[in-house]
Amino acid sequence: MNNTIHVTIEDMHCGNCENKIRNALIALPFVASASVSSQAGSAEVHTSGDINEGSIRDAITGAEGGVCSNMWHSVSLESPRF
Asked: Residue 14 gets which letter from DSSP?
């Protein structure tokens, strides 16, 4: 099943954080694509197959260098828009 997950990420301030989070998300086997915006303080994660919200959280909070260790705020699932 395909889903779009909107993730609000607090205290993300730069493109470096965007890249680290995006790379961590797209490394997950169920993530088809991800876009991350420090300006909006959010990420859109497009998934295929079964998802694991805990893995998404771990990918964000464990992004290389620990830049995002306290940024997790909330996740809500919504159906893809056609």
From this structure: S
